[in-house]
Amino acid sequence: MRCTIGVDIGTSSSKGVLVDAGGAILAQATRAHDVSRPRTGWVEMDGGNWWDEFVALSRELLAAVPDAEVTAVGVSGMGPCVLLTDQDGEPVRPAILYGVDTRAGEQIARMTADLGVEAITRVGGSALTSQAAGPKILWIQEEDPAAWGRARRIFMPASWLAHRLTGAYVLDHQSASQVSPLYDIDREQWHDDWWQRYAAPLEQPALLWAGDVAGTVTDEAAVLTGIPEGTPVIAGTIDAWSEAVSVGAHGPGDLMLMYGTTMFMVFTRSVATGEETLRTPSMWTTAGAFAGTRNLAGGLSTSGALTAWLKDLTGSDYPELLAEAEGSGAGARGLVLLPYFAGERTPIQDPDARGVIAGLTLAHGRGDLYRAALEATALGVRHNVQTMRDAGADIRRIVAVGGGTQGRLWLQIVSDVTGLEQEVPRVTVGASYGAAFLAAGAVSDPAPAIADWNPVVMTIAPDPALAPVYDTLFDRYLRLYAGTAEVVHELAAQQRADDEKETPA
């Protein structure tokens, strides 16, 4: 049976799927893991674990379907991450994760002062924020000189897996465009002058598109994974873009909402047909997963991470909390929550933002808090969508994907808060499925169509009767952040100072 494997390295778990030529999932496997948070604002992971989990997942998938004939391998992963290795591909330190890691504030400020916001935005598409990988490379150079002295190559989860499988040293254009400001988005190539200034002596990885073949499985990798030697492996890309592929949300005017540990949004334009590349300081402009596409992207630093925190804090389970949250009703009985428990990415770009819960009384229970958390993520989505539209995004279609789509309440709250209809496809496992689809496209003639693999099966429409409630709540949400920012920033500074006292030099 001809199949493709797709594996995604996520923030809280790695997931793998084995998919037949028609898009049916034959087997799934998951490995849970944790990130390391050694200091406030630092989020790291051991890159070696990514390969170990890939090996375990591939063997489990192949054992589940003994007659599987693997024709290609797809990879994806969270990002943009910074995993530096030596010349032999051995990591020199833990990987620094994407925008939830906010350590490089000083490097962002210095690079911005050195190069100028206008030049950075013109070349890279976006102003420098905690999402940009370039300042994190500079942070390692300045703050971890021992590791920097050994570093020769840069990887992200997808490119690391492709390297371990094939020996190739590549990075896809979409991921490269988030190594800002070291990638020229209009020319679709590395910006050599700035690379030499900030990233030398790192070797520049060759650039491919997400579905391009990076190489074939080596004999050594075949022995470890069970995947036959010579099997093609694609370059892959960052998980949110692979998720967009998995549900067909990568056409002009499409917006993907990814419900995961964090919430991610990707809006697509086609520069191949003459549409303008959108740039705005509070969002991220990137290359797309496919040639000729550009994206305006945004992300909340917490969504599923926030609901998991509340579940663990209250000692409850999700069905209990969802039932109680539904009973709480729109507005959570007078609560408004800011979901900035790990700082915030777009559109406020404030790594020192913190969570706030306003309106609490002794009459409130855990269901009200859970409802307020779901509504907070929806309010964050509304803030991002409004910012995208203000920048010129003509959003025509919204597709939901990710683990959070399994519960209808969260989907309904997002539609009610934003006033937007969402399409939900049959398969919502996410990035690993998108990676498997891209792999199939790389070795099939003709390439499969995602509409055939993964048709839309449900549409979530907003309740117009709730629009006044959520218009008022959104106004309070914006004013609560503005009104508490000064105190919250003081608390964030205190948290950093306390960390430094507790962390050995």
UniProtKB/TrEMBL annotation:
Which keywords describe this protein according to UniProt? Carbohydrate metabolism, Kinase, Transferase, Xylose metabolism
Carbohydrate kinase FGGY N-terminal domain sequence ranges: 4-243
Q: Which SUPFAM superfamilies match?
A: Actin-like ATPase domain
Coiled-coil residues are: none
Q: Which Pfam families does this UniProt record tie to the protein? A: FGGY_C, FGGY_N
Gene3D superfamilies annotated for this entry? 3.30.420.40
- EC no.? 2.7.1.17
Record-stated family: Belongs to the FGGY kinase family.
By what name is this protein known? Xylulose kinase
Q: Which organism is it from?
A: Microbacterium azadirachtae
